[in-house]
Amino acid sequence: MCRRLVLAVMTFIIFGLGALAFGDSESELSQRMKVLTKNPEALSPENFAMLRQFHIIFVGGFTNELLRGYFAENKKALNDMGIKTVSTVFPPSGKEVEANADALDKTLREKYREGGRKPIILVGHSKGGVETLLWAIRHPDLITDGKVASVVIMQSPVDGATMVDEVRNTVGDRVLNLFLPYHRGFVSMSAPELRAAVQENINTLTAHGREYISRRVFYVRSWVKTGETTIALKPTQIYLKNGHGPNDGLVLLKEQRIKDFGRDLGIVEANHVELIARSSYYSDGDPAEIRGFTQGLFETLLEYRTCRHLLQPRR
């Protein structure tokens, strides 16, 4: 009897807690996404009114030049709610992460003026999320001045992209340089180099600056079950899962946040593309689900404990 009890406890620890670690527990963001997908009217009127006071800017990721409809459904979801101050920024895929992060500073200052000087909520996806995070660390004054209220990092390899290293180790940089468009931007996401660059930039912040920026950075992470994604992403999803762990088809779950810097908004079950594009070779995104995710994202963001206070627009 005692041995059975011990075995039961061990089984719970291994499989129960293991499931939590690998993302099987449903986050508040995921729950809201499902509710709002079925019923868009479930969005809190108070949050809806608050959201209209902001300028929302989406920052695209790698190969944004090739992905048709990038953020189109996300923008439409917000526009349909009467939120019209919505912009997109598409950094050049071929440029290194740090170069795009610095260039983003000028772009955001221009967008701030163009948006009627409303406080900005930034949502950076994939490589664009890495660049958005580095921008926040390297150029924090727009945040400390209250011009950028919050920074959402979505499905981004902020701790370095293992997939990039796997490709480089398999075919070599010389071949990539010859045949892969945007080669320089691609290799700039290499795990060891990018991880070191992000940490080095974080270390330049003062203790107060680190805490201030960290409280305004939020991560949205994703993963998919083995084989449950599009044909285009299924090979990489399975390869990464077998060799490294849960992932969204391109980025490992564990790479999608920086430990002890920023807050986790939640994990959703989705591949790397389906939340930001309706139809493409890599996505089977459903417009209703994209709308539900978009509404759920901002609903969760605005209600996240002290986040409501942090996001109050300055008069």
What does this molecule look like?
By secondary structure, this protein is an alpha/beta fold. The protein has a domain at 27-158 and 193-222 and 255-310: Alpha/Beta hydrolase fold, catalytic domain (Rossmann fold). The protein has helices spanning 2-21, 28-38, 45-51, 72-80, 97-114, 127-138, 141-144, 162-171, 173-179, 183-187, 191-202, 207-214, 234-243, 287-302, 307-310; strands at 55-59, 86-89, 120-125, 148-154, 217-223, 263-269. A six-stranded parallel beta sheet has the order 2-1-3-4-5-6, sandwiched between helices. The chain is globular and about 50 Å long. 43% of the residues are buried.
**Beginning-to-end CA distance, first to last residue:** 67 Å
Low-pLDDT windows of residues:
1-24
- Report the sheet-strand fraction: 5-15%
- Level-2 CATH architecture of one domain: 3-Layer(aba) Sandwich
Q: What is the CATH topology descriptor of one domain?
A: Rossmann fold
What would you call the structural class?
alpha/beta
Q: How do the strands of the widest beta sheet line up side by side?
A: 2-1-3-4-5-6
The total beta strand count reads 6
**How many strands, which pairing sense, and closed or not: the largest β-sheet?**
6 strands, parallel
